Amino acid sequence: MLKVYSNLRDTLKAFEQFRKTPINFDSFDIDFYEEFAEYMIYENIQCRRKSLIKGFKVSTIGKTIKQIRIFLGNRILRKIIPPINLEDFKILDEQADAIYLTADEIMSIHRTDLSACLNLKTIKKFLCLVV
What we know:
Number of domains: 2
Helix content: 55-70%
Number of helices: 5
Structural class: mainly alpha
Number of strands: 0
Radius of gyration: 22 Å
Distance between the termini: 34 Å
Low-confidence stretches: none
Strand content: under 5%
Oligomer: single chain
């Protein structure tokens, strides 16, 4: 959880620098949400990549918005900040594709001669046990 909040903090700091306006608890309104979502889609630079990649995937944006809602909800519950209407902070999501091997593909792997590669032979053995 610490890493999730650390990533959220880093993204908020980058957004704060991008828009050149400090973020505080009063900042969280529908305008903030729309600007922040647009920033994450088009402008945010992914730091841990070797090449320059701008923008998060939809599921990452949804996770970030969800964490903001959880954090602000906790601050409201503990009466640290006054109530904020968070229902417009929509958690974006997209359908993920699950890719599986067919039985024929698994059998093809099983029949492959990997005697020259001991490490691959072990992996093949494990894969065939899973099926």
